[in-house]
């Protein structure tokens, strides 16, 4: 049986970034738990052609490869930094290049980071509706992490780690649906 592919995508240009660290952590945990293959990207991987692209055909080879990995994945972990209560424009532009049918029915674990608790509902008011438009299946437990949940770029909050665990548990229904029975 072919291994399912999990792709993580961080809407951050920063390296290192808390958003990318969060996406990487979630992706690693899910892949270890469910024996998935893993790829993780960020906006830096997409590169400079993103800003000029009006369609998928306008992307250079590197950017097109990232977009292809996202749409051909079996499961997605999407993370975004929060700016003024929403996701950054270039992150949205990348998502805008995806045809809605390309994400139809795809399980998506949504996550976001922000400076404080003030932005915590961004996952519910921005990311969940965005992926709802694509008719993707957003996992019920969304992840939000603020600066206080990290030490540098390492997750240190036990509450955040517990919430990530709940979300990873919820992926089981999608993994077993796509690949048959799963082990412990």
UniProtKB/TrEMBL annotation:
Top-level taxonomic group: Bacteria
Ranges for domain NADPH-dependent FMN reductase-like: 5-147
Name listed for the protein in its UniProt record: FMN reductase
Keywords: Flavoprotein, FMN, Oxidoreductase
Enzyme Commission designation: 1.5.1.38
GO molecular function annotations of the record: FMN reductase (NADPH) activity
Family, as annotated: Belongs to the SsuE family.
Kinase is among the record's keywords: no
Keyword Flavoprotein: yes
Enzyme class (EC, first level): oxidoreductase
Organism: Aliirhizobium cellulosilyticum
Source lineage: Bacteria, Pseudomonadati, Pseudomonadota, Alphaproteobacteria, Hyphomicrobiales
Pfam families, per the entry: FMN_red (PF03358)
